[in-house]
């Protein structure tokens, strides 16, 4: 059985001349590892991995260019 953990990465960018950030993109991820695996969750199709934060859905904010 596959791991049920999911994540959403929201990439933000600065708005020049302000202290605001806007969402530039949103990517949904699904862990493809077996249920109960050790270590980071990983979506190999999208080349992303993330740390388990205790919920089956994790939200990650990332500044553009990181």
Architecture overview:
The chain has 66 residues and is mainly beta. It contains no helices and 5 strands. Helix content is 0%, strand content 48%. The strands form 2 sheets. The chain has a 3-stranded mixed β-sheet, with no helix packed on it. The chain is elongated and about 50 Å long. It starts with 5 loop residues before the first strand and ends with a strand. The relative contact order is 0.38. The model has no long low-confidence stretch (mean pLDDT 91).
The quaternary structure here is: single chain
Number of domains: 1
Helix content range: under 10%
Strand and helix order: EEEEE
Q: Give a count of the beta strands, DSSP E runs of length 2 or more.
A: 5
Main sheet record: 3 strands, mixed
Stretches where pLDDT is under 50 for at least 5 consecutive residues are none
Q: Going across the biggest sheet, name each strand in turn.
A: 2-1-5
Mean pLDDT rating: 91
Helical region count?
0
> What is the global morphology?
elongated
- Please report which band the strand proportion falls in: under 5%, 5-15%, 15-25%, 25-35%, 35-45% or over 45%: over 45%
Radius of gyration: 14 Å
First-residue to last-residue Cα separation: 33 Å
Helix/strand-derived category reads mainly beta
């Amino acid at each position: 059985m596959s791991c049920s953990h999911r994540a959403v990465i929201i990439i933000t960018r600065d708005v020049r001349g302000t202290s605001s950030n806007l969402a530039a993109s949103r990517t949904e991820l699904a862990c493809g590892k077996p249920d109960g695996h050790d270590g980071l969750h990983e979506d190999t199709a999208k080349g992303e991995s993330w740390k388990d934060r205790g919920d089956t859905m994790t939200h990650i904010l990332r500044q553009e260019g990181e």
